[in-house]
Design goal:
With 246 residues, the chain is mainly α. It has 9 helices and no strands. Helix 1 runs antiparallel to helix 2 and helix 1 crosses helix 7.
Length: 246
């Protein structure tokens, strides 16, 4: 089980898992979601919001079964913090997990940039270049800072509730990846227009560092809000909903 796996293997599992999440999710948004042809027409086979949402859900679903037995498949600093708050994760492992997640995300962001640069006319510009997150002028739908903060906290909270509930020892074993992957898909369907959906500080960082400017200037929100929502969920589940809760 994951608790007996050496830290180095957990580190690599989280690095590779987060790389796959960002490559699959952000990569689908950058490379396959309605990019324009040279004549200005929009690709009719582009994935759109639904396709990108499914891509994020599928990457997480596949990694749950690929590395869940090694590291628990957090691939998200907010998940690591939420599991810690829920008493499911050692605080001493937070730093190495988060470092691995951020490294994996940044490497994936670099690969996406390199591949996207292979298309003539590709430039990093616009509010959500390389699938970055943002609010205000950098929100896909022009949503405010307050709206972005609220949706990221709320969705991160419920994402962790799904994770904590579906991995509870009283839940059916072997099926946790399905509700977790579907939850991430639903989260993207709700919030892509608002923030381009983060709920994952590593995912946000992995592409923002390659864009700079407002993408990095607003990045702090996509660390604070998901972690705050996750910490709250960990406390709520362990205090009010778990078998041990009074």
């Amino acid at each position: 089980m994951a608790h007996s796996v050496p830290l180095a293997k957990k580190f690599l599992a989280e690095l590779f898992g987060t790389f796959w999440l960002v490559l699959g999710g952000c990569g689908s948004a950058v490379l396959a979601a309605n990019f324009p042809y040279d004549n200005g027409a929009v690709n009719p086979l582009g994935l759109g919001f639904l396709g990108v949402a499914l891509a994020f859900g599928l990457t997480l679903l596949t990694m749950v079964y690929a590395i869940g037995h090694l590291s628990g498949c957090h691939i998200n600093p907010a998940v690591s913090f939420g599991l810690w708050a829920g008493g499911r994760f050692k605080g001493s492992l937070l730093l190495p997990y988060i470092v691995a997640q951020v490294i994996g995300a940044i490497l994936a962001g670099g690969v996406i940039k390199l591949v996207a640069s292979g298309r003539p006319g590709f430039v990093i510009e616009g509010a959500n270049a390389l699938a970055t997150n943002g609010f205000g002028a950098n929100s896909p739908g022009g949503y405010s800072f307050g709206a972005a903060l609220l949706i990221e906290v709320v969705l991160s909270f419920f994402f962790l509730l799904v994770i904590l509930g579906s991995t509870d020892k009283l839940s059916p074993s072997g099926f946790a990846g399905v509700p977790i992957g579907l939850a991430l898909t639903l989260i993207h369907l709700i919030s892509i227009p608002v923030t381009n959906t983060s709920v994952n500080p590593a995912r946000s960082t992995g592409v923002a560092v390659w864009v700079g400017g407002q993408a990095t200037g607003q990045l702090w929100l996509f660390w604070v809000a998901p972690i705050a929502g996750a910490l709250l969920a960990g406390w709520v589940y362990s205090t009010l909903l778990s078998e041990q809760a009074n």
